[in-house]
Amino acid sequence: MNNNPRQLAFIILQEVYRKEAFADFALDKHLRKNDLIDANRRLVTELVYGCVRRQRSLDAIIDRLAKKKSHQQHPDLRIILHIGLYQLSYLTQIPESAAVNTTVELAKENKLAKLTGFINGLLREYIRRELTIDLPKNPVQKLGTLYSFPDWIVKYWIETLGLRETEELCSWFNQSPSLDLRINPLKISITEVETAMKNTGICVNWIPQFPQLLRLTGAVGSIQKLPGYEEGWWSVQDSSAQLVSYLLNPQPGEIIIDACAAPGGKTTHIAELIGDNGKIFAIDKTASRLKMLEQNSERLQLKSISIYIGDSRSFPEFINQADRVLLDAPCSGLGTLHRRADARWRQTPENIQKLSKLQSELLENTAKWVKPAG
User: What's the whole-model pTM score?
Assistant: First the structure.
């Protein structure tokens, strides 16, 4: 167990940077294993997601202050510098002296004691010069460096949206997202959940267009410790994802297939909307992610869901069987960059072309599953 939030953030970032682990999965795994107080849990989360999002901007600062470029530095040194510089650049509530001193201590704890002088000097030089990022004149590279996005994404947005809207979009995608809950009406009312949250000091907002949604604002601590988690009162699901199941408009007693279902947020929402009365076949090729659906179905006490492991381009037994089919095909994830800190670094234009082909194949096959007049 590790109660040092910066050391825990360092360990998680090692997995993300060096082993290409997904940031959200790695963070969740380590937060479950380490019983941190809420303030430290929030700091770990902020450091991990912040460093992953802002790594291009942080590298640009290192490149300007150090003789060796960021990616030429020892991988662990790069992570430690990111943690220190992120605090100095973006976490104004942390005193500069604390940011510097804890970063130096972090180096000592991770066998980089010989480099503490370099780390201390670089961070203090950053403070002394009130350094801003050295921005290129090219607008694509300028916005990419300032807001920490790959050039190809910025270029596409500028060509599509124009310069001003692209900068606004870049800024918005770097903001910490709100936490949206989808209330389970089979277990409890939205007003009861609102009362329970307020009684523990958590601020909530209603979103009128979404009858099952409560938006939590401010710090909430551990998700699993919020009122009603174990009892299955609610699930975490973004408002845009909740909208999909309403558009599907499932009805009680129907046969519904959710292709590419994992991790299952939309599947469980469909089950709630039909009153858990019907048959829902949830299909995905990734067994580990379907495990999350199985666990949430049990927590929400939903019985109408059957899980299938496999590729939705097959399953001929489902032809003409479904009243409705939901296909949430694999995509670039660029619309969820504010929630998925590492998504911007995982995609390439070539991958998007491959995904487009896969989406067409999935659509062609799953359309055959719909009954006549379905």
Answer: 0.84
